Amino acid sequence: MATAFETKADDAQAAAERAVREDLAACYRLAHHYRMTDLIATHISARLPGEEERILINPFGSLFHEVTASNLVEVTVDGDVRTSGGVINPAGYLIHSAIHAARPDVQCVMHTHTAAGVAVSAQEHGLLPISQQALVVGRRLAYHDYEGVALIEAERATLKRDLADKDVLILRNHGLLTVGRTVGEAFWLMMQTQRACEIQIAALSGGAPVRLLDERLQQLVHEQTYNYGGQPNGALDWIALRRDLDRTAPDYRD
Q1: 27-84 pLDDT, tens digit each
Q2: Which of 36, 146, 161, 254 could staple 173 via S-S, CB 3.0–4.6 A?
Q3: CATH code, domain with 160
Q4: Number of domains into which the chain is organized
Q5: How many whole angstroms separate alpha carbon 129 and alpha carbon 131?
Q6: Furthest CA-CA distance within the chain
Q7: Domain span at 97
Q8: pTM above 0.85, yes or no
């Protein structure tokens, strides 16, 4: 018979896992709302609490606005699917599990194939320091060369190498990826990177020379915005976004 202490610990664990499920389901709904989806492709994952390395990811075949807290699939970083009947995308699993395994500080990994993100990933110069949004992510940014659809085990090592300790990864000719210490931080970083890419494509399309912001300003903006308020970026934004989602699409909690 379980002791009161064990029951309390089990209840706390279940509550913590439920909170992660709701945060991740909310992130999928917000990605849909902000038009950062690609049919059933791309993924967002979150690490579950506990000693065992387990992550949640979307069920393969579901659109982002169909994701709920309860239909997310639990899988270990070694590929053991724990959700009965759960089906996952092997390419999505490879990318996400590789990063979670390499970065124990990361709770959430978000990957997108937006038009602006892919367009900038295909430009040789990458993300240019021409906007405040670009400077917010610039010191946290790395690049990863395209290696084909992510089905080759060897890419796990190059993803780990290229991301290293950064929080934003431009996957060349492929798209954008962000990591966060919280789900909210990963989403906030994706929004900043996405906006920076949209601004860059718009600015370059005008044909006029663009003004590059210098190294001093790049470092200054990084210092001004990193861990703003002494907490992971996007903390207040995430509260507001969840509040809005509770009004407009509360079934994400189901």
Answers
A1: 999 999 999 999 999 999 999 998 889 999 999 999 999 999 999 999 998 889 999 8
A2: 146
A3: 3.40.225.10
A4: 1
A5: 6
A6: 74
A7: 15-253
A8: yes
